[in-house]
Structure formats: structure tokens, C-alpha cells
Write a structure and sequence with these properties.
623 residues, mainly beta, Jelly Rolls, Immunoglobulin-like, 4 domains, seven-stranded antiparallel sheet
């Protein structure tokens, strides 16, 4: 078991956030951009009411009965232009609203999600009640701060107040320290012509260039990218490239000057009419160069030595070995099939993020342990860590089978616990804000495990599966199987080894390079940011394939020929020389073995792809 860091570099959603993520994608300070601001928004009326339906009474003699029709204080819908107005001690007053000294008037809830900075403008007319001597009006947003305005007068006066931080379902309450009248209430918000791009990230860092990436903006015709240099104090920016046009959600920035400072960039969206969004927050570009891999050495039938060029600034390297195959016919491919038998109740860790050699590439955040099961401690997570109680897969190529993934899981949890399974697919070098698909499993039992099967969609060449227990709950998983229904000719792969190494080399052992699959390795360099606050990394290298060639390794004894046939769901092995027999699944796990005491063996299995080894001979079969 070893500590690992988060590999999913998603932009928002609590489901994917994890501290310690290897990413240079951070900028903690809003820095001066040294560019002129351009008009990028318009004022939109969010709510307006002139109380023209308050026809009873008059300003000097309001209607005697208050308008509230129930204990909620709601007004009759026929009296207002928008449903949701209410209050206490509010009376009709001949086209205006009269509010008693201890009364209040409140608005319907207002959607402010598209308001720039959530800023709003409230205007209205008001005056003292006929018999009031003095009074001060006020406006309160929700249950927040009350904002007092200038004193009321006997004559109608115009009032205006700006309020910041309005939330998605904001409501506003009007009151005063005296009897008073109010009319012509208008609430406005600033709405961008085009939303500000978000989810900035980057890859393909070369030292003098990178690919800038962001999330798409609805209504954007194109985007403008600005690049700056950043001083060591991370406080001032110097423009280097301005207004680099991009028609897609990424832009390749090249030929930047070689400087000692860091780069950062921001993005502006532009609509078809030339209206611009606000510029995004600048994103710091701090990464390592991608290593250059060398040919493997010491290649044997059971392993090899991998090496690569050392990278300046690297403190360790993240190394993976994958097994890949091309399906010869339609069938099932198990991306992962584990019963967690390598976990016991005595398993322990002082780390909040752990991984296991027998679960290559997976990270378990805020774990719990019991015999044959891994748990996620949703109660501890918000108290002791900034992590979410979760399991996070390595990157898989899930493009086969139409991008569909069938998951079968046996789990239990505290009563009321909910566990979500989400699939995220990287596009243009960035994971999306929201998953391609997800399934929420609830109604779990605490005493017994139950098995659920479901399908996630949207898999691609670079996908991750994220499992999270929601709220303050516990959940345990004892069996997990992830399967793709692949078509003949499709290529599928799965990691078999993942670990960290301080050296620019790695030793791979205990794999079978004669089993009919292709093996490759990838690696990335990992370092520490200049301010020593977070990890930075390079991109992963391209796959470097390793092939075993037995030629010249000595005479191989000739044994009696073996054969393997398939009959329904049965593998039939003919073994005249009584050699050892073993059956492997697509993740490399041995699911059957014998010493070869029989010349004829029949092995019953579920459907899928398997490798049958008889002595040194390998046979690939599909049931």
C-alpha cells in the first residue's frame, strides 16, 4: 500500500475535488491585467411590481384589511403581477402598498445565477404614512444583512440600493421604522452578453509553449487568449501575447520567449455580434517537461527494465504498465474484477489517500478497512480532511463497445447512505465540469451486502470512473467488476502496474510477456510548485511498447502438442504432456490453475476473454 495523489484534474463538482492533485493549474490571487475593460453586460429587469392591482383604499386612507391570506403571509395571485409576493401588515392603498410600522413586504424568489458577480440594483418609490412623523426604510436579502436607506419624507422619494452576493434563489424584504408606503419596485441585474469562460487548464507544456484549454461557453462565436509573464512574487503581470483567436475550446500557444518567470493566461468569449465576456481569472502555467522514454532492457518472458530521460525539477516519477489486446471477436472485456481479498480488517494507514499494488492506479480517499472490503468514511472526510470519501480510477480507454461500461458492485452502507458512480471523459485535454453519466445508488443496507448492476455511458480514449459516498455516511464495497462489451477489432487495455519511483527507471516483474497481449509503459515527471504549495507534473509520455523475443535465449525443449477448445461456457484443454495449466483474465489475475496431472481438463467459466497457458504455450479464448 502506498500514498498516491488525485489523478482526475476536473474543474468543479464536489464529486471530483481532491487535495494534493498533481496540477499546476492554480492561481490564488486576482492580479491586475493592465488592460482596459470593455462593456460586456447589459442591465436586465429581474422583477418589477407597480401594485396597480392594489385598487382598494388610498394613500391617505389604506384598505383596513391586510392582504396576507394565510399564516405564510402569501398574497392572492390576482393582486400581483408575479406569484410569490407576500408580507405581514401590508394593505392596498389605491395603486401603492401601505406597510404598517411592524409589518414587512417580501418579494418572490429571484434567479440570480447569471448575474455578473451576483450584483443587483433595487429601486423603488416610498413616503411616510399619513400619520407618521419619521421613519427609515430598509431592505434585507434573505436572512442576511439589513441595509438602511435615507429617511422617509411626507412626499414620495426615489430610492436606490446596490446589493452584492445575491444567490440563485434570492428574496428581499422591505420594512421601515414607521408606517410607510412603497411603489414601483424594480430589481435589476447585470447579465453578460457572453458568459465568462471557466474550467481553465493546460497541457503539452514545452517550456516555450502550451495548449490552453477551457470549458465551452453557450453563444460564444470564438475566444481570445491572452498570455502574460508572472514575477516570482506572483503579483504583477506583463503582457506577452494579446487577443490570440481560437475557434474551439483550446488554443496552442507557441514560440513564447525563454524567461525565468512563469506564464499565465486568461480567456475571453466573444459572441457573433462582437460582444465580449469578462476575462476569466488568470491561470498559472507551471509544469514539467515530458520525459523521453528509452527502449526497454533486460526483457524476459516475465518482465523488463524501463528507463527515460531525467527531467529537471522532478522529485519522482509516476509509472504505469498497461496490457492491451485487440478483440478477435465480440465479447466481454473485464477492465477490473476484484473481490478486495487483499484487504483485511488489520490493514491500516496514516494517510488519507491510499492505493494498492493489486488495484493498480486506483486511489481510495479517506479509507476504512475490513476483511475483503474497502470502505469510504464520509463522516471523517469533512472533519479531518479536505478530501471527499471516494474511489478514483486511473485513466482507461473506454471508447470500445460504444463507450458503454457495465458495472457490477456489492456494497453496503449506513442507513440512508448514497453512493454515486460517475464517468468522466477527457476532451481536448480537459475533463468536463459534469460527468458524461452517473448513477446514484441509495437505499443501502448496513447489515448485509447487496449487488447492483448498471451501465455508464460516454466512455472515450481517456476516461475515469469516480465513486463517492455522499454526505456524512459510510459505505463499503466488497466486489467490483467493470466490463465492456467489445466488438471484434476494437482495442482495449487495462493497467497492471502502477507505482512511484525516485529514479528515472523502473523494474517490471511478474508479468507474462508471452501471454498473447501487448504491453506498454507510460510515465510522467512530478515536482513541486515554485511556492512549494502543490504538485506540478508533466504530461504522460506516449505509450512505449515492449516485446519479448525468445530468439537466442537457448534451446527450448519440444513437448507434446497441447490444444485448447471452447464448448459453450467450457474451456476444454488437451494436455498430452501433463504440463501445468493456468487461466488468466484480462487484468492478469489467475482464476484457475492446476499442476497438469490430467491429459484432459474441462474448465467452466463465465463469458469473456481469457488466456489459457499450458506449459509455455499460450492460447487466447473467448466464451
Amino acid at each position: 500500500m502506498k500514498k498516491l495523489y488525485s489523478l482526475v484534474l476536473v474543474v468543479v463538482t464536489a464529486a471530483l475535488s481532491a487535495s494534493g492533485a498533481i496540477s499546476g493549474q492554480k492561481f490564488s490571487k486576482r492580479m491586475p491585467l493592465n488592460v482596459a475593460e470593455s462593456p460586456n453586460s447589459r442591465v436586465v429587469v429581474a422583477l418589477e411590481e407597480d401594485f396597480s392591482k392594489f385598487t382598494e383604499g388610498s394613500e391617505t386612507s389604506p384598505a383596513p384589511e391586510a392582504l396576507e391570506k394565510d399564516w405564510y403571509g402569501s398574497f392572492d395571485e390576482s393582486k400581483v403581477s408575479v406569484k410569490g409576493w407576500g408580507g405581514n401588515g401590508v394593505h392596498e392603498a389605491g395603486g401603492s402598498a401601505f406597510i404598517e410600522k411592524d409589518g414587512v413586504l417580501w418579494t418572490p424568489t429571484i434567479d440570480m445565477t447569471n448575474s455578473i458577480n451576483k450584483d443587483i440594483i433595487i429601486t423603488f418609490r416610498a413616503r411616510l404614512g399619513e400619520n407618521a412623523e419619521a421613519g427609515v426604510p430598509s431592505v434585507t436579502m434573505g436572512y442576511g444583512k439589513t441595509n438602511e436607506l435615507p429617511a422617509l419624507a411626507k412626499q414620495w422619494q426615489n430610492y436606490k440600493i446596490d446589493i452584492s452576493g445575491a444567490y440563485s434563489g434570492a428574496d428581499f424584504t422591505f420594512g421601515a421604522t414607521s408606517d410607510w408606503l412603497i411603489d414601483d419596485v424594480k430589481i435589476e441585474k447585470h447579465v453578460a452578453y457572453v458568459e465568462t469562460p471557466g474550467g481553465l487548464s493546460f497541457n503539452n507544456y514545452t517550456g516555450t509553449g502550451f495548449r490552453a484549454i477551457w470549458q465551452p461557453v453557450s453563444g460564444a462565436h470564438h475566444y481570445l487568449v491572452n498570455v502574460y509573464s508572472v514575477d516570482d512574487a506572483l503579483e504583477s503581470l506583463t503582457p506577452i501575447v494579446s487577443g490570440l483567436k481560437a475557434d474551439d475550446v483550446y488554443c496552442d500557444v507557441t514560440d513564447l520567449p525563454e524567461i525565468d518567470d512563469l506564464f499565465c493566461f486568461n480567456v475571453t468569449a466573444v459572441d457573433a455580434n462582437g460582444n465580449t465576456s469578462e476575462a476569466s481569472m488568470p491561470l498559472l502555467v507551471e509544469a514539467l517537461l515530458t520525459p523521453e522514454t528509452y527502449d526497454a532492457t533486460e526483457v524476459t518472458s516475465s518482465g523488463f527494465n524501463a528507463s527515460w530521460e531525467a527531467v529537471d525539477g522532478a522529485i519522482f516519477y509516476d509509472f504505469y504498465t498497461y496490457r492491451r489486446t485487440e478483440a478477435e471477436q465480440d465479447g466481454d472485456f473485464a477492465i477490473l474484477d476484484t473481490d478486495f481479498s487483499f484487504i483485511t480488517a488489520e490493514t491500516s494507514s496514516d494517510e488519507y489517500s491510499v492505493s494498492f499494488d493489486l488495484l493498480p492506479g486506483w486511489i481510495i480517499n479517506v479509507p476504512m478497512f475490513e476483511d475483503g472490503a474497502i470502505g469510504m468514511d464520509g463522516a471523517k472526510a469533512p472533519i479531518e480532511t479536505t478530501l471527499f470519501a471516494s474511489m478514483e480510477s486511473p485513466a482507461y480507454n473506454l471508447s470500445a463497445g460504444g463507450g458503454e461500461v457495465e458495472i457490477t458492485v456489492s456494497l453496503r452502507g449506513t442507513r440512508g447512505a448514497k453512493v454515486t458512480f460517475s464517468l468522466y471523459t477527457m476532451k481536448n485535454g480537459s475533463y468536463p465540469v459534469f460527468p458524461e453519466s452517473y448513477v446514484a445508488l441509495d437505499g443501502l443496507q448496513f447489515e448485509e451486502y447487496e449487488t447492483r448492476t448498471f451501465t455508464l455511458t460516454g466512455g472515450g480514449e481517456n476516461s475515469v470512473i469516480y465513486i463517492e459516498t455522499c454526505d456524512w455516511e459510510w459505505a463499503w464495497i466488497t466486489d467490483l467488476k467493470i466490463v465492456q462489451h467489445v466488438k471484434a477489432g476494437e482495442t482495449v487495455s487495462a493497467p497492471v502496474i502502477n507505482y512511484l519511483t525516485l529514479d528515472n527507471s523502473a523494474e517490471v516483474k511478474d508479468i507474462d510477456l508471452t501471454d498473447g497481449y501487448k504491453y506498454y509503459y507510460i510515465v510522467r515527471a512530478v515536482g513541486i510548485s515554485r511556492d512549494e504549495e502543490y504538485y506540478i507534473s508533466s504530461d504522460f509520455t506516449a505509450p512505449h511498447f515492449v516485446e519479448y523475443d525468445p530468439a537466442g535465449l537457448g534451446q527450448i525443449s519440444v513437448e507434446a502438442e497441447a490444444s485448447v477448445e471452447v464448448s459453450g461456457k467450457t474451456i476444454v484443454v488437451s494436455n498430452p504432456a501433463n504440463r501445468p495449466v493456468a487461466v488468466y483474465d484480462m487484468t492478469g489475475g489467475i482464476i484457475y490453475e492446476s499442476a497438469g496431472a490430467s491429459e484432459h481438463e474441462e474448465i467452466n467459466l463465465n463469458g469473456g476473454f481469457y488466456i489459457v497457458k499450458v506449459g509455455n504455450d499460450s492460447f487466447k479464448v473467448s466464451l
